[in-house]
């Protein structure tokens, strides 16, 4: 069914109808994580300021969130700002920090209509007051929504997340709430910011970079990776479908053997 859809050149209403049926397919990934990269290069190619690329990238976020919802993805995690991105010029950082407000202002009615729940991973307290406030408001407003989880990684860094989890676990041990023998993979998982979410099934990175840039190091242990040269502002439903189609062809072994391979 997927092939048939992918073969079409235009994504139209009827196609979206068909996409909805895909949610019945077991091979639809539950959780997709995306490293949205290439906004700056997109702008540079057009002799525009980098922030114009970020603005265009925001439109892609909307497009892909809609598509993920239509296809029946349960969780879409989007890497929007890393703990390392503070190194960028202040003007660019300020613009990136204003994007959640711009995004939510225009998209919130549709978020509610689609029953989407907004969530966040990352060090929220280090965000500017307004950014924090709009994100808090969106999370509060959507907390009872039961559809797609739109999870933004904002001021997120995997190493910082792991360090924090380690410290929190050690505090529990110090206070006698956990013993060293209690600590296993599940415990560590429970202390990460993603504790309530299943691990990503599929990781997409755009713009031709083939690295993780400090993203979900623990959680991606058995995730399928998919890279594309397409820059994030140019990424569209077709690319997203292509990634899912490729995912469907993968053989996830988790270190074991599958089916016939056992013989
Ligand atoms: C991704 O695009 C957005 C963020 C990292 C915030 P970039 O801004 O990294 O774009 P390039 O990699 O410079 O093209
Ligand atoms: C990763 O992209 C971070 C986000 C997409 C938010 P970067 O553009 O910051 O990564 P590097 O610097 O190329 O590794
Ligand atoms: Mg980049």
Automatic annotation (TrEMBL):
Name the EC number(s).
2.5.1.-
Q: Name one Pfam family in it.
A: Prenyltransf
Q: Detail which positions bind Mg(2+).
A: 37, 224
Which residues bind substrate per the record?
38-42, 50, 54, 82-84, 86, 88, 205, 211-213
Question: Which note does the record give on the cofactor?
Answer: Binds 2 magnesium ions per subunit.
The answer, when asked if Signal is one of the entry's keywords, is no
Query: Where exactly are the transmembrane stretches of this chain?
Result: none
Q: Which GO BP terms sit in this record?
A: polyprenol biosynthetic process
Q: Which UniProt keywords apply?
A: Magnesium, Metal-binding, Transferase
- List the InterPro entries: UPP_synth-like, UPP_synth-like_CS, UPP_synth-like_sf
Residues the record marks as active site: 37, 85
Tell me if Magnesium is a UniProt keyword of this record: yes
A molecular function annotated in GO for this UniProt entry is: manganese ion binding
Q: Which residues form the signal peptide?
A: none
Cofactor(s) the protein needs: Mg(2+)
Question: Looking at the UniProt record for this protein, which Gene Ontology cellular component terms does it annotate, in alphabetical order?
Answer: cytosol
- Subunit structure, as described in the record: Homodimer.
As for what it does, the entry says: Catalyzes the condensation of isopentenyl diphosphate (IPP) with allylic pyrophosphates generating different type of terpenoids.
User: In its UniProt entry, what is this protein called?
Assistant: Isoprenyl transferase
């Amino acid at each position: 069914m997927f092939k048939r859809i992918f073969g079409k050149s235009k994504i139209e209403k009827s196609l979206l109808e068909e996409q909805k049926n895909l949610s019945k397919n077991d091979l639809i990934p539950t959780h997709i994580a995306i490293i949205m990269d290439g906004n700056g290069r997109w702008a540079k190619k057009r002799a525009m300021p980098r922030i114009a690329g970020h603005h265009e990238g925001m439109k892609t976020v909307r497009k892909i969130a809609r598509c993920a919802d239509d296809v029946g993805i349960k969780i879409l995690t989007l890497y929007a700002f890393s703990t390392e991105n503070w190194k960028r010029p202040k003007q660019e950082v300020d613009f990136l920090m204003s994007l959640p407000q711009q995004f939510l202002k225009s998209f919130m009615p549709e978020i509610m209509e689609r029953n989407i729940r907004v969530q966040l991973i990352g060090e929220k307290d280090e965000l500017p007051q307004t950014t924090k406030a709009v994100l808090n408001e969106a999370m509060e407003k959507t907390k009872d929504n039961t559809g797609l989880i739109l999870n933004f990684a904002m001021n997120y860094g995997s190493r910082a997340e792991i360090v924090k989890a380690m410290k929190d676990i050690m505090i529990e041990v110090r206070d006698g709430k956990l013993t060293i023998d209690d600590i296993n993979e599940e415990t560590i998982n429970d202390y990460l910011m993603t504790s309530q979410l299943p691990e990503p099934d599929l990781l997409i990175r755009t713009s031709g970079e083939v690295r993780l840039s400090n993203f979900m190091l623990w959680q991606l242990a058995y995730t399928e990776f998919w890279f594309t040269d397409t820059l994030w502002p140019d990424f569209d439903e077709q690319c997203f479908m292509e990634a899912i189609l490729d995912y469907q062809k993968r053989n996830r072994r988790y270190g074991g053997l599958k089916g016939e391979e056992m013989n």
